Amino acid sequence: MGSSNSKSRGISKQQSQKEKKPDEEASDQLIEEVVCKTSDLQDGEMKAVDFGGSSILVVRENGKFSAVGAKCTHYGAPLAKGVLCNGRIRCPWHGACFNSTTGDIEDFPGLDSLPVYEVVVKEEDVVVKATKTSLSSSKRIKKMVKASTDDSRTFLIVGGGPASVSCAETLRQEGFCGKIIIATRETHLPFDKPKLSKSLDSTPEKLALRDVRFYEDSDIILRHELEATGVNTVDKKVDFKDGSSISYDKLFLATGGKPRCLSCPGWDLKNVCLLRSPNDGNYIAEQAQGKKVVIIGTSFIGMEVAAFLAGRAASVVVIGHSQVPFARVLGDVVGKMLMKVFTIAVVLQ
User: Fold this and answer.
1) pTM (2 d.p.)
2) What is the CA 13 to chain-centroid distance, rounded?
3) Rounded Cα–Cα distance for residues 215 and 74 (Å)
4) How far apart, in whole angstroms, are the C-alpha atoms of residue 346 and residue 349?
5) 218 contacts 146 by C-beta, under 8 angstroms
6) What is the spatial distance between Cα 113 and Cα 144, in angstroms, rounded to a whole number?
7) 118 pairs with which residues across the strands?
8) Kind of pairing, strands 220-223 and 179-183?
9) Distance between terminal CA atoms of the chain?
10) Mean pLDDT (whole number) for 170-192
11) Model pLDDT, residue 9
12) Fewest CB atoms within 10 Å of the CB: 38, 152, 221, 241?
């Protein structure tokens, strides 16, 4: 009987594996399609094409063809509308750069690389090959090493923003096997600060650049609620407000900037807010509902907050030094055009 039961379990296991096999085969199924003719692209051009139900970017440079993901891994901008130059694809929105052959990210913002696909030229046809699995994601993380007990070095990173995460990832990607510590004053995971003013009501989890599992898998240590107060370059250690300290072999400071406070009486009242953290954003979004809101600052952060609060607050007034928004960074002509856009959207009053 025991032998019979064991045999039955073996058969059930095999049947279970057979049931999963079609799905596995489907995900690893190789797709091969002609995406364009060689004459469709001149040297130094790129084009978004349909492939396997997805959009990919085909590039022709120095007489060779390559194919990568069609969307920027930062905020999903269409790379076909960007710029191709000297082996680099530059995003049209925020300027992230990717290698046109390997898909690797070479300049930020953004952390992830583009997926890359095999290209074969058959006479006048440009053929792309890829599995369904490789088409399922528009992002790719470069291979990283893990920490080794044989490497006693400590690389300390102070700050909890994109620069800190990018530094830690680059170290692992370039083969650093020592200890990596990110020390941040925040209570939550390192987050995408530029996104904060665009989406005030987002939770820290939604704004997080990476999840907890990523840091664990990459052997990157996160130390929360640590505010740096001083650096001792002789003893190579950083002191923190709670009285603790961390020794380092190499140090990277990426604490970011602080919002400027008003110097007038009343700046510290509860209804006068600064925007620096997800908690700040959540508080502003909640308190602004149906209220009259005044925003000081007419550049990107101020205007993005104004756009978010339009339709939520009773009214939004933006105060700045210039006659039009964005004047200092984009000039009066563009500023006037954007002023009309905001006015039409009932952002400014």
Assistant:
1) 0.81
2) 41
3) 19
4) 7
5) yes
6) 13
7) 129
8) parallel
9) 84
10) 96
11) 39
12) 152
